[in-house]
């Protein structure tokens, strides 16, 4: 499942604010802040909405044994190497 480090990394990669991510995903900015700060792990639907918003903009999430381990840009958009976001 998507984790806070992946969310922060994807947001940084795209150079977008929490406000922009909220607009793209339909997730409240306060919820995004709480997830990124570790105050909440996020509900499954919330994480799915965030993931979809990023994937629509070319971000792929890397998982190993169900655990989020990094992000990368889709091949057609790839300008940077994959980023590891171990917690």
Word description of this protein:
It is a single chain. The protein has one domain (4-84): 434 Repressor (Amino-terminal Domain) (Orthogonal Bundle), CATH 1.10.260.40. It has four helices and three strands. The protein is α+β, with helices and mostly antiparallel strands. It starts with a helix and ends with a strand. A hairpin with a 2-residue loop joins strand 1 and strand 2. Helix 2 crosses helix 4. The radius of gyration is 12 Å and the shape is globular. The mean pLDDT is 89. The protein has a three-stranded antiparallel beta sheet with strand order 1-2-3, covered by helices on one side.
Please supply descriptive tags for the structure shown above.
three-stranded antiparallel sheet; alpha+beta; globular; Helix-turn-helix transcriptional regulator; 46% helix; 87 residues; 4 helices; 434 Repressor (Amino-terminal Domain); single chain; Lambda_DNA-bd_dom_sf
Give the arrangement of secondary structure elements.
Layout: H1 4-14, H2 18-25, H3 29-37, H4 44-55, E1 59-64, E2 67-73, E3 83-84
Antiparallel strand pairs: 1-2, 2-3
- Strand arrangement, major sheet: 1-2-3
Major beta sheet, specifics?
A: 3 strands, antiparallel
Strand content: 15-25%
**Helical content band:** 40-55%
Give the count of helical stretches.
4
What is the CATH-assigned architecture? Orthogonal Bundle
């Amino acid at each position: 499942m998507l984790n806070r480090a992946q969310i922060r990394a994807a947001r940084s990669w795209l150079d977008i604010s929490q406000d922009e991510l909220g607009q793209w995903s339909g997730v409240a900015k306060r919820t995004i802040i709480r997830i990124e700060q570790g105050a909440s792990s996020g509900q499954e639907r919330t994480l799915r909405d965030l993931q979809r918003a990023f994937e629509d903009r070319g971000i792929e999430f890397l998982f190993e044994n169900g655990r989020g381990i990094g992000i990368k840009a889709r091949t057609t958009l790839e300008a940077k190497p994959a980023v590891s976001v171990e917690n």
